[in-house]
Amino acid sequence: MNILMIVGEKRPIPWSKGGAIQTYVDEVSKYLKNEHQLTILSTAYPSIGEEETFDSIRYVRSNLTVNEIQQFIQIESFDLIHIFNQARLIVPIREVAPDSKLVLSIHSNFFKREHFTRFEANEILQQLDHIITNNENITKTISTLFKIDRTKLKTIYSGVKIEQFSHQNTQQNQHIRKNIRSEYDISDKKVVLLTGQFSPNKGVDIFLEAIKQLADKYPNMALIMVSSQAYNDYHDGEYISYLRELAEKIQIPVFHSG
Structural domains in the chain? Predict the structure, then answer.
């Protein structure tokens, strides 16, 4: 098949500039390229070219306006078009690709009533052949709120490449573990580790409020937070400053490593 993937996020593909969906697409494409002709359309980015073919995958980058996407699709002929998160692209894409299979991957619960009217959502969903979510909660939300054939919905959880992680009981890892605990003076503590992107929609402030309550009950805890405000952004923004204020009120050791 001739497949087009559209990743309308802030970062390009391949994932050298970070991004969860970018990483996901980059890994999946390694398998798809062996059986299919694959094009990945993502956002333009400074210092990265507009088009290249690498390892049998064609990468195209643009400003991803609706007109640009429509014009690109009209020139080509794709059997399947897979769109990531950008639900509003579905109807305009269907207009120029009436015979293509359309798949929408949803990695966040943005199919909410505050984002789409019921009419808009139903119009989008009716144009789709399949919808893929990364957790069952999103699948249930969509099937509950909107009129859609449940067989179109499929939950596929994101995987973990466990071979990239070694077991903590190896001699090397025990040494690293001991040094880190000694560095932070938490050798005798129960450590909670939080990793991820620290942005308001991730609910890190809610997590810190919960940790504050746990700390009152379990004072022998320590919290290590590993992240930045955004990928490749290691400067304190307003939200990070707010999180630091919350962390200072917690009566256990709290460390933030960007």
Answer: 2-155 (3.40.50.2000), 166-257 (3.40.50.2000)
